[in-house]
Design goal:
The chain has three domains: 194 residues, Rossmann fold; 86 residues, N-(1-d-carboxylethyl)-l-norvaline Dehydrogenase, domain 2; 148 residues, 3-Layer(aba) Sandwich (Rossmann fold), CATH 3.40.50. 44% of the residues lie in helices and 14% in strands. The protein is built from 19 helices and 15 strands. It has a seven-stranded mixed sheet. A six-stranded parallel sheet has the order 3-2-1-4-5-6, sandwiched between helices. Strand 1, helix 1 and strand 2 form a beta-alpha-beta unit. The radius of gyration is 24 Å and the shape is globular. It starts with a strand and ends in an 11-residue tail after the last strand. The structure holds nicotinamide-adenine-dinucleotide (NAD). The site of nicotinamide-adenine-dinucleotide has 26 residues, from helix 1 and helix 5.
Length: 447
Amino acid sequence: MRMTVIGTGYVGTVHAACMADIGHEVLGIDIDAERIAALSSGRAPIREAGLDELLARAVGSGRLRFSTSLAEGAAFARTHFVCVGTPQRTDGEAADLRYVDAVVDGLAPHLSQGSLIVGKSTVPVGTAARLGRRLAATGSDAEIAWNPEFLREGCAVGDTMRPERLVVGVSSRRADAVLREIYGPMLRVGVPFFSTDPATAELVKVAANSFLATKISFINAMAEVCDAAGADASVLARAIGADTRIGDRFLEPGLGYGGSCFPKDIRAFAARAEELGAGEAVVFLHEVDRINTRQRRRTVDRARQLLGGSLTGRRIAVLGAAFKPGSDDVRDSPALAVAAAVQRQGATVRVHDPEALDNARTAHPDLTYAPYVPLACEDADLVLHLTPWPEYRKIDPAALAAVVRDPLILDARNSLDAEPWSLAGWTLHALGRPWLAPSAALAGGAS
Ligand code: NAD
């Protein structure tokens, strides 16, 4: 089938490349001419496992092209996926819908009869209905459907090719049929397909993100209590997670969530519920947000305590800049927020990340960066482990002990294996866990 994918960021680039790979003819559209030029020559604007190969194949096959023109898009296809950003408004917590509105307004005068606009951006419930009224006012008969995106950065291609579920919110049988045909290859291998109304589809996305954020903040709240009580939140997390009704995923105590989705989606959901008169129902989301933000402060406070009450003049190595492993995205990265905060308190900070150094440098030119872990850690008084890249679990603690000034590490992600660090002479602290002295016996481990 023919389709356009409008907005070629994380979601749009991956969606466009995957749709072309499963056999559709796709035109990717963006207002960023530089991005479109790079994509046309097969260069992805983001780093995602498997994306470069997929993009090269799709562009090479002729099934994927790019343009900056919505008029060309409307002439090319009758199905248009909208993947533009919906950031937090600068004047409040609600979502800024100006980019979504601009796409619909820009398409409207060019649309052919019977067009289908399919939103993938994360939007407040009621957006599809509002956009439908806006389109109708222009005399267009186009339908607006919503098909929220659930991909996770770091495994975006895999998530798009083999999603755990597809959700579409439609107002007609025709829109349902078009989307079933587009996603045919996924449906044929048994991917669950939930076809519902647009409002429910819009809500599924924000409800899912709210649930996951709540799970993360729940375990971080438990970690705060564990710290106060001298208990071990990582054992607690594993023990409660062993209950299959609870499950152990997204139950790792630590620095909390960040990125371009959870923080703004949770706030936008609470703001929209308030507008609808249902604010009381999701008042807990404000607490989820507060707990999450507090973990960044707790990490900085703990770093200061570990260095005797002041960060002034101390050298701190930061492991991790991306908001999560597997991605070079640094938008609202907890790691960079902590790095910047400890520097503001007088420390000299050197940041390492396996993938995100370029983006980190652009977002925080004030910080110093190192391409290798030992370089970041040279003469450090304290190492902060802030993004749980698998690479960091493979560090040789004995070799790293030789380059630092003091073998002191704060594992703010609770993901390093404490024993080898301790045996190599490090003092390892973690959020929500009793600290481990060098070569201390492992206390509290599950057996
Ligand atoms: P992004 O910022 O990476 O990309 C947005 C793109 O849209 C940019 O390339 C921008 O130039 C383009 N754009 C803006 N206005 C445009 C216009 N009028 N016409 C054409 N292009 C335009 O955003 P993203 O991370 O891909 O997120 C897109 C949406 O998907 C958001 O609503 C987000 O919440 C949601 N989402 C994101 C993820 C994720 O992991 N990033 C996952 C699920 C859902």
